[in-house]
């Protein structure tokens, strides 16, 4: 179990807080809007109302005691101020939510250890899903790499991992296959690709797009 502070109870922040709580974490959700806190307080461990652009209000939360602090404030300036104060107050690990590349850059400069960019990431995932009829899902690992659920390429059907030598010839790694909704890990190089299955592959976007065409 992790101790988590979520600052900002907007659309992203309250969902994040609730999911973190459902997964067994100790979650405090805070926001300056009383209406939002009243609406979501019952779905998290604790909740408080306050203006956390005020350093003393942040200090009163004991921010150094949390494993993770998520800054999910939509206002550009407020999120930077809060992140900077958290850093000064000794927060262990700050994760900032960015709305643009410049926002991401300044959050990192102000002390965030990691930045999430949900609108951009979801937009890319949707673009991937609806551009190709052979790509069914996507999870971003970095700007250049991800994990994709794709249809088995026609040329691979009936052949094994060893036959194709996927990693050497295509620079991607097959980590699992999906059959009737169940995901099973690929444990043997003797695994044979089937036309009625999807495969879960990890690698560079360009290489995966080549085999998914």
Features:
single chain; alpha/beta; 11 strands; 27% strand; elongated
Can you describe this structure?
The longest helix has 14 residues. The protein has 213 residues and is an alpha/beta fold. It contains 9 helices and 11 strands. Helix content is 37%, strand content 27%. Helix 5 links the parallel strand 5 and strand 6. The chain has a 6-stranded parallel beta sheet, sandwiched between helices. Strands 7-8-11-9-10 form a 5-stranded antiparallel beta sheet. The model has no long low-confidence stretch (mean pLDDT 91).
Strand content: 25-35%
Give the termini separation: 42 Å
Return Rg in Å: 21 Å
Helix and strand succession? EHEHEHEHEHEHEEHHEEEH
Largest sheet composition = 6 strands, parallel
Oligomer: single chain
List the helices and strands and how they pair.
Blueprint: E1 3-7, H1 11-22, E2 26-31, H2 34-40, E3 46-49, H3 55-60, E4 68-71, H4 76-88, E5 94-97, H5 101-109, E6 114-116, H6 118-131, E7 135-140, E8 145-151, H7 161-164, H8 166-170, E9 172-179, E10 182-185, E11 198-204, H9 205-212
Summarize the model shown.
By secondary structure, the chain is α/β, with parallel strands linked by helices. The chain has helices at 11-22, 34-40, 55-60, 76-88, 101-109, 118-131, 161-164, 166-170, 205-212; strands at 3-7, 26-31, 46-49, 68-71, 94-97, 114-116, 135-140, 145-151, 172-179, 182-185, 198-204.
